[in-house]
Write a structure and sequence with these properties.
Elements: H1 3-13, H2 18-24, E1 26-29, E2 32-35, H3 38-72, H4 83-94, H5 100-103, H6 109-124, H7 129-137, H8 139-148
Helix pairs in contact: 1-2, 3-8, 4-6, 6-7, 7-8
Length: about 160
């Protein structure tokens, strides 16, 4: 059988036999067709493994950082692990009403609420707008810095009443 016959046969049976499918398969690398060798496929899996390990490390760093931030604010650290409850506790830390949790489930509004929460969290720890921007865009770095750094929870700034002014 010639090469054209083998190619047609491989394409016809590619859905039925994984071995034939692997022999007929080709991969695209930098816009060029290359054979899908086991080493190539293994390299792709190794790359995904490295990305997965880095992602896991960043998640652990973020979890530990948030745990420390909650602890510094006088709240239980484990509260940072429970999905909706962590937002309730965060709203208590920054002095916002708990009903804002509902806003977190409304598309586009949740982004605005997230920015406001980040700003007030930075403010509650004596930080400025720059730190709030860091919490928004690089939270996996800024939460651990906030938790392990020298920042002290100052509480929520209450506005002065007319009698006090």
């Amino acid at each position: 059988m010639n090469n054209i016959g083998l190619s047609l046969l491989a394409n016809a049976y590619s859905g039925f036999s994984p071995a034939v499918n692997m022999a007929a398969a080709s991969c695209s690398f930098n816009g060029q067709e290359v054979p899908c060798s086991p080493a190539f496929v293994g390299g792709i899996f190794a790359l995904f493994g490295v990305v997965w390990i880095l992602d896991l490390a960043l998640m652990i760093l973020m979890i530990v950082g948030m745990w420390k931030v909650y602890s510094k604010a006088g709240k239980p650290g484990w509260a940072s692990l429970i999905p909706v409850y962590n937002l309730v506790v965060m709203l208590e830390i920054i002095g916002k009403p708990v009903w804002w949790v509902i806003l977190a489930f409304i598309p586009f509004v949740n982004v605005v609420v997230g920015v406001i929460v980040a700003y007030h969290l930075a403010k509650a720890f004596g930080k400025g707008i720059g730190y709030a921007v860091g919490l928004i865009f690089l939270s996996f770095i800024f939460f651990p810095i906030l938790g392990f750094g020298k920042a002290v929870y100052t509480g929520v700034a209450t506005p002065a009443t007319p009698n006090e002014a």
